Protein backbone atom coordinates (compact mmCIF):
# COMPACT_ATOMS: atom_id res chain seq x y z
CA UNK A 1 0.00 0.00 0.00
CA UNK A 2 1.39 3.39 -0.95
CA UNK A 3 1.70 6.21 1.56
CA UNK A 4 -1.33 8.55 1.68
CA UNK A 5 0.85 11.53 0.66
CA UNK A 6 1.79 9.79 -2.62
CA UNK A 7 -1.83 9.28 -3.71
CA UNK A 8 -4.40 11.58 -5.23
CA UNK A 9 -6.71 12.78 -2.46
CA UNK A 10 -10.37 13.71 -2.78
CA UNK A 11 -11.82 16.68 -0.93
CA UNK A 12 -9.84 19.93 -0.76
CA UNK A 13 -6.73 20.33 -2.88
CA UNK A 14 -3.63 21.71 -1.20
CA UNK A 15 -4.34 25.27 -2.41
CA UNK A 16 -8.08 25.21 -1.69
CA UNK A 17 -9.84 28.44 -0.75
CA UNK A 18 -10.85 26.79 2.55
CA UNK A 19 -7.18 26.70 3.59
CA UNK A 20 -6.96 30.50 3.56
CA UNK A 21 -10.19 31.34 5.41
CA UNK A 22 -9.75 33.22 8.67
CA UNK A 23 -11.47 30.52 10.75
CA UNK A 24 -9.56 27.54 9.30
CA UNK A 25 -7.46 25.90 12.01
CA UNK A 26 -6.83 22.32 10.89
CA UNK A 27 -5.95 20.18 7.90
CA UNK A 28 -6.66 16.47 8.06
CA UNK A 29 -5.95 13.64 5.63
CA UNK A 30 -7.93 10.49 6.26
CA UNK A 31 -9.38 7.26 4.91
CA UNK A 32 -13.13 6.73 4.80
CA UNK A 33 -14.04 3.46 6.54
CA UNK A 34 -17.85 3.55 6.31
CA UNK A 35 -20.23 5.32 3.93
CA UNK A 36 -21.46 8.68 5.16
CA UNK A 37 -21.05 12.41 4.81
CA UNK A 38 -17.27 12.08 4.31
CA UNK A 39 -17.42 9.80 1.27
CA UNK A 40 -17.35 6.14 0.32
CA UNK A 41 -15.27 3.42 1.95
CA UNK A 42 -11.75 3.45 0.55
CA UNK A 43 -11.77 7.16 -0.35
CA UNK A 44 -8.66 9.05 0.70
CA UNK A 45 -9.57 12.64 1.61
CA UNK A 46 -8.06 15.98 2.63
CA UNK A 47 -10.09 18.68 4.36
CA UNK A 48 -9.31 22.10 5.81
CA UNK A 49 -11.49 22.59 8.89
CA UNK A 50 -12.59 25.01 11.57
CA UNK A 51 -12.34 23.99 15.23
CA UNK A 52 -15.95 22.71 15.08
CA UNK A 53 -15.28 20.78 11.89
CA UNK A 54 -12.19 19.22 13.44
CA UNK A 55 -14.18 18.12 16.52
CA UNK A 56 -16.77 16.55 14.21
CA UNK A 57 -13.99 14.69 12.37
CA UNK A 58 -12.62 13.41 15.69
CA UNK A 59 -16.12 12.20 16.58
CA UNK A 60 -16.34 10.47 13.18
CA UNK A 61 -13.00 8.77 13.86
CA UNK A 62 -14.19 7.72 17.33
CA UNK A 63 -17.27 6.11 15.74
CA UNK A 64 -15.01 4.43 13.15
CA UNK A 65 -16.43 6.25 10.13
CA UNK A 66 -12.98 7.61 9.21
CA UNK A 67 -9.32 7.02 10.13
CA UNK A 68 -7.23 10.21 10.33
CA UNK A 69 -3.78 9.53 8.85
CA UNK A 70 -2.26 13.00 9.13
CA UNK A 71 -3.28 16.27 10.73
CA UNK A 72 -1.74 19.69 11.04
CA UNK A 73 -2.49 23.12 12.41
CA UNK A 74 -3.25 25.84 9.87
CA UNK A 75 -2.28 29.41 10.76
CA UNK A 76 -3.00 32.18 8.26
CA UNK A 77 -2.93 29.64 5.42
CA UNK A 78 0.35 28.07 6.54
CA UNK A 79 0.28 24.34 7.26
CA UNK A 80 2.26 23.60 10.40
CA UNK A 81 2.78 19.89 11.02
CA UNK A 82 1.72 19.03 14.52
CA UNK A 83 4.22 16.87 16.35
CA UNK A 84 3.16 15.96 19.87
CA UNK A 85 5.83 16.08 22.54
CA UNK A 86 7.30 12.72 23.37
CA UNK A 87 6.72 11.65 26.94
CA UNK A 88 9.87 11.27 28.96
CA UNK A 89 10.54 7.99 30.65
CA UNK A 90 11.54 8.18 34.24
CA UNK A 91 14.27 5.77 35.28
Molecular structure report:
This is DUF5720 domain-containing protein. InterPro entries: DUF5720 (IPR043778). The protein is α+β, with helices and mostly antiparallel strands. The protein has one domain (4-81). Helices cover 13% and strands 32% of the residues. A 5-stranded mixed beta sheet has the order 1-3-2-4-5, with helices on one face. Strand 4 and strand 5 form a beta hairpin. The longest helix has 12 residues, at 51-62.
Task: Provide a quick synopsis of the model.
The chain has 91 residues and is of the alpha+beta class.
Q: What general form does the structure show?
A: globular
Give the strand line-up of the largest sheet. 1-3-2-4-5
Number of domains: 1
Strand content: 25-35%
User: What is the distance, rounded to the nearest whole angstrom, between the alpha carbons of the first and last residues?
Assistant: 38 Å
Largest sheet: 5 strands, mixed
Low-confidence stretches: none
Tell me the total number of β-strands: 5
* Total count of helical runs of at least 4 residues: 1
Listing every helix as H and every strand as E from the N terminus to the C terminus, the arrangement reads EEEHEE
Derived from helix and strand composition plus strand pairing, the structural class reads alpha+beta
- What is the rounded Rg? 14 Å
| Helical residues, percent | 10-25%
Overall average residue pLDDT: 88
Protein name: DUF5720 domain-containing protein
InterPro entries: DUF5720
Pfam families: DUF5720 (PF18987)
Domain DUF5720: 5-88
Amino acid sequence: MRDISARELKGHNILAVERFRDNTRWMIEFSVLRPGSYGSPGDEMRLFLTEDGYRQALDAQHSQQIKIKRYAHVVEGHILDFKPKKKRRHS
